[in-house]
Design goal:
Elements lengths: L2 E5 L3 H17 L3 E6 L4 H8 L2 E4 L9 H18 L3 E5 L1 H13 L4 E5 L4 H4 L3 H14 L4 E4 L2 H9 L7 E3 L22 E6 L8 H14 L3 E6 L7 H9 L3 E3 L6 H6 L3 E4 L8 H8 L4 E4 L14 E4 L4 H12 L3 H18 L2 H22 L2
Parallel strand pairs: 1-2, 1-4, 2-3, 4-5, 5-6, 6-7, 8-9, 8-11, 9-10, 11-12, 12-13
Helix pairs in contact: 1-2, 1-14, 3-4, 4-6, 8-12
Length: 371
């Protein structure tokens, strides 16, 4: 039995976005081992048949000692498990997992889910992050990118030289995120933000835009779901008291919020490929998103949603107003066309097929090399 080791940084994203590929691997008689920080979704992954290794990953930390310990731990478990191939996701597993795979001569497939703030911002942090990527990805059997802009950026920075493929993000489970009938207005229009309450997700622009829009349209409700950084707790509480926004915290059943919304808003500064937008479009909801790589691929401007300039409150307000000015049938039609786009371009089965082909290619090649 061949073994696949998955290195990731969060139980929720691993389960929600990777469970189909994991299930397909198990059904194909692969042994699947996952290494990530423990969380409630780990139990569901274990029920599927995965073996679990608990590991501490400080997702946003910059402590070199902690990162070196992470590398050592990755190297240790790879030596113990001796996987046929390792799948890595997000920057630290990609970098330090990649280094550990290189040192142990273990084949690995890298998924660049996004550039991240450290790479997006210019300066010393970007230089350090890019150099780490060069080291971590140099021996990767295949690097999967979720948008063409990130792929070109890595090539321009001389980070990648070998095999790369462009995939439609993590794809969408079309059955789980089924088309939902557009909600009756009932004198209230609900705009939904899904994501971590943090600067890089455009939360500051969204809150400012919400105050402006509420003055113009008192029947518009801004719903926010996702974990929150401490910096925004007081401001969110004050805006809730004023009736500007409603904050629901982190939710496991995101689909029910999408179902009850009229559109999803994401003013993010950067994305790999925004799953929340794909899931919203799959459910038949129009998209309002910043015109940045990872967002622009998910909608057709004026057809399945509206785009706006990143970090620009006026542009965001204009896009919201453009949506609000549509008739009910126009809003509904916009959502329906979004569903058709997702069915055609972002079915998760496309991502699974790509992974299985690469895993079979890599494991077959490594087997030949040992003869």
């Amino acid at each position: 039995m061949k073994t696949v080791l998955i290195l990731s940084n969060h139980h929720l994203y691993t389960y929600n976005l990777r469970k189909e590929i994991i299930q397909r691997l198990i059904d194909s008689n692969y042994k699947v081992v996952i290494a990530l920080p423990y969380g409630e979704k780990v139990e569901l992954l274990k029920e599927m048949g995965c073996e679990f290794i608990d590991i501490l990953v400080d997702r946003r930390g910059t402590n070199p000692i902690s990162d070196f310990k992470l590398f050592l731990f990755y190297r240790k478990i790879i030596k113990q498990i001796k996987p046929d191939v390792v799948l890595t996701y997000t920057i630290k597993p990609n970098v330090y997992g990649g280094m550990a795979c290189s040192m142990t001569k273990t084949p690995y497939i890298t998924n660049v889910t996004g550039l991240g703030t450290s790479v997006q911002d210019n300066g010393l942090m970007q230089n350090v992050a890019l150099q780490l990527y060069r080291i971590g990805l140099t021996q990767s059997s295949c690097i999967l990118f979720q948008n063409n802009t990130n792929q070109m950026f890595f090539r321009e920075k001389n980070i990648i030289k070998g095999e790369t493929k462009l995939i439609p993000g993590s794809g969408v489970n079309l059955k789980l995120h089924k088309y939902e009938e557009y909600p009756v207005f009932d004198n209230e229009i609900r705009l939904l933000f899904i994501g971590r309450i943090m600067k890089a997700k455009g939360i500051e622009e969204l809150l400012e835009a919400a105050m402006i829009v509420k003055r113009q349209h008192s029947n518009v409700q801004f719903d926010l779901i996702g974990s929150m950084e401490e910096d925004y707790e007081q401001e969110i509480q004050e805006l809730e008291k004023e009736g500007i926004v409603k904050y629901y915290g982190q939710q496991t059943d995101v689909h029910s919020f999408i179902k009850n919304s009229h559109a999803t808003v994401l003013p993010s500064y950067h994305e790999g490929l925004a799953n929340v937008l794909l899931e919203s479009a799959s459910s038949g909801r129009p998209i309002l998103a910043s015109k940045v790589p990872g967002c622009i691929e998910t909608f057709e401007d004026g057809i399945t949603g509206f785009g706006f300039e990143v970090k620009n409150v006026d542009s965001l307000v204009a896009a919201i107003n453009e949506f609000l000015n549509l008739s009910y049938p126009q809003k509904k039609e916009m959502g329906y066309k979004g569903r058709l786009k997702v069915e055609k371009e972002f079915d998760r089965e496309l991502v699974i097929d790509t992974y299985l082909k690469e895993i079979n290619r890599v494991t077959s090649a490594s087997k030949e090399s040992y003869k």
